[in-house]
Structures are given as C-alpha cells and as structure tokens.
Amino acid sequence: MESFEVAVVGMGAMGSAAAYHLARRGASVVAFEQYDLGHVRGASHDTSRIVRTSYGAPEYVRLAQSAYRDWADLEQESGERLLTVTGGVVFLPVDGPYSASDFTSALHECGVPYELLSPEQVRQRWPQFSVPDGVETVYTEDSGIAHAARTVATLQMRARVHGADIRDRTSVESIVPDGDGAIVRTSEGDVRAGRVIVAADAWTNALLEPLGAAIPLDVMQEQVTYFRPADPEPLGPDRLPVWIWEDEECYYGFPTYGEPTVKAGRDVSENRMLPQERSFVPSDELSRELAEFVGGLIPSSGPALRTVTCQYALTPNRRFVLAPVPQHPAIIVGLTAGHGFKFTPAIGRVLAELALDGESTDDVSAFGFPTP
C-alpha cells in the first residue's frame, strides 16, 4: 500500500491551498478530487470573489490580515497576479439585524483603517450607488477581488511543482482510522496517510458520518448574475468598489472585472438541494429578486446577461471549522461555510500546519470542531 505523510480530500480552493502549503514544506502529499480539476459542481469556480478584512468579528479580521500576507506570498512565489484592490463598502441599514459598530469595533481592535460614511457621503464619492437614507456604510480601502478559477489553478500547479501527487477523477469512498494515521479508500485503491485533511465541503459528511462525527450542514444551490451596463466605464474597478449589503436578505457585487459586466448575487438564497440533487438551473424567482435589488442600488447596472450557479455548505452559525475530529485526531476538517475564499491561502497554510505541526501559527481557537 502506498504511504504518504498527508492525504488531502477535495481539490477546491481550500484543499488545493492545503496541498500547496504541504508540498512547499517538503511533505509527501497525495490529493484526491472526485471530478475533473476546475469542475463547476462546488464553490471554487467562476471568476471573482470578494477579498476583505471588513468583518464584524475580530477573529475573522485577524485571519483576513494573515490571508493578505499569504496572498502576497503566493503571488510572489508563483509570479501570478491574483488580487485586484478596489476598496470595498459594507452597507448596513440602521434598522437591520447587523450593526455597523460591530464592524468598526472589530476593525479598530485589529488596527485596520476604515471610514464610516453617511448615505450622502457615499453618493458624493460614488454616484453610481443609489443608497437610501437610514443606511450606514463601512469603507475599507484594502478590499478587492480575487480571481477564483485562476487562484485554484495556480495553487494546483504550484503544488505539483513542489512535488504533490494530485489525482483527479478519483473518489474517496471512506477514511478508516488506523493507528496513528488513517487508510484512505478510493475508487482507484487504498493509500495510508499519517494525517488526512478533509476539504470536501458539501460532501464532507459522507466521510465523517461513518466515523460518528457528522457536522450539521445546510446545503443549498446559490447563483450569481452578470449584468450588462450600457456604459461599463463608470462601473470599472478603478471607479467602483466591491460592495456588500447586510440586511435580512444580504447581497453583494463587483465592479466590471475582465469583461464589461457587473456581477452580483444574494448571499444564502435558501434554495436547498444536496449535491446529488443539484439542478444547475437558476431560480427565476431569485433572478427577479436580484435584478430588482441591483437595479435599485446601481441603476446603471443594465439587464441580466447570464446567471451561474454554485453551492453553499453552511455550518452552524456559519462558523469556520479548522480542526481535527476529536475522536480521530489524525483527520482534520476544513469547512468555510460559503464565505471562505478570501482566506484561501491562509486556510491552506493553517490546515497544513495542523497536519504537520499539530497547531497553527494563527489563533484558530474560534474555529474548533462543533460540539453536539
């Protein structure tokens, strides 16, 4: 039986980043992906993802600060430009469930510069936004865009350069604890690993449930729409920041990026379906709701051009899980609940450190394994 120091299950963003950091540190690592690399069944495809330090909780702000350092290191090591800084705004209606003070307090605690803007100040600085009264806006200049598909491909290529054995179209059928490690049973045969990192997102419980360690996951199909403005120039990344609307229903969006369209989506659409039930067909109702919202916030966004689906696997309270399974510590789980891409290189490093060192140089105590 083949033997490796670490096996990684799932080669989306988090698994690819873990494989990259493991291989870069010289570990013998094998990584499995059940589909083709770069597939569209999960949550790591398409072009753009928002990157930001702007969170309402300091533990996420600090991890985002680490992630920015890891993004810079990845860009330098690979020679790829993966981030585009645009600045970013978070809109928070004063009568909504989220408080601007949570964001400003967390940013202040972590030393991140920010501005708290009134609707009039937003309209003066970015007349593209039609922000109503009664909305507070937190602006951070470090926010921007990560190229999603390019990032994942870069991590996979660099992992291979550093010696990772990446095996796509290979399903992991089970993980069997074995002494100080585990046997990974795959569709192409078994391997033994001292540690196993499970970065399988919505498929995670297929491997954890037989171990009595299932994590409650709320799995749903999400969708984003690209809108075609008549004049894309005022909506470019040098003139429009990335944006998030935090309310009972949350939305987010981007300036033009790589094409003359603006992309927007609703966060947590509650269109529930398991991976094996995925339709890949956008919801007409959600599309109409999104078009109405975006047209109100950015009147020049234009008509919908196309819609792309993806997948969320939400943990309780959307908390990250970056921790070993308590009863099987050789098995380490990475789950990011639909808001993790911005942290990709840092989470990959954290998972690699947990596998090789037993602890991380970042404080990830807030992201432990959920208790029943």
Keywords:
about 375 residues; alpha+beta; FAD/NAD(P)-binding domain; 2 domains; eight-stranded mixed β-sheet; 8 helices; globular
Fold and architecture overview:
With 372 residues, the chain is of the alpha+beta class. The chain has two domains: 2-44 and 149-215 and 317-367, FAD/NAD(P)-binding domain (3-Layer(bba) Sandwich), CATH 3.50.50.60; 88-139 and 218-314, D-Amino Acid Oxidase, subunit A, domain 2 (D-Amino Acid Oxidase, Chain A, domain 2). 26% of the residues lie in helices and 30% in strands. Helix 1 packs parallel to helix 5 (148-161) and helix 1 (13-24) crosses helix 8 (344-357). The longest helix has 21 residues, at 58-78. The two termini are 35 Å apart.
Topology record:
Layout lengths: L1 E8 L3 H12 L4 E4 L15 E4 L6 H21 L4 E3 L2 E6 L6 H10 L5 E3 L1 H7 L9 E6 L3 E4 H14 L3 E3 L4 E7 L2 E6 L2 E10 L5 H5 L9 E10 L14 E4 L4 E4 L8 E6 L16 H14 L6 E11 L6 E5 L2 E8 L8 H14 L15
Parallel strand pairs: 1-2, 1-12, 2-9, 5-14, 12-19
Antiparallel strand pairs: 3-8, 4-8, 5-7, 6-7, 10-11, 11-12, 13-16, 13-17, 14-15, 15-16, 18-19
Helix pairs in contact: 1-5, 1-8, 2-8
Short structural description:
The chain contains eight helices and 19 strands. The chain is an alpha+beta fold. Strand 1, helix 1 (13-24) and strand 2 form a beta-alpha-beta unit.
Contiguous helical run count? 8
Structural class: alpha+beta
Tally the structural domains. 2
What is the correct CATH architecture of the largest domain? 3-Layer(bba) Sandwich
Question: Mind summarizing the main beta sheet?
Answer: 8 strands, mixed
CATH H-level superfamily of the largest domain? FAD/NAD(P)-binding domain
Shape descriptor reads: globular
Order of helices and strands: EHEEHEEHEHEEHEEEEHEEEEHEEEH
**Helix content, binned percent:** 25-40%
Terminal residue distance: 35 Å
The CATH topology of the largest domain comes to FAD/NAD(P)-binding domain
CA gyration radius, whole angstroms? 20 Å
Quaternary structure of the protein? single chain
Q: Give the percentage of residues in beta strands.
A: 25-35%
Q: Could you report the average pLDDT, rounded to the nearest whole number?
A: 98
Low-confidence stretches: none
Strand tally is: 19
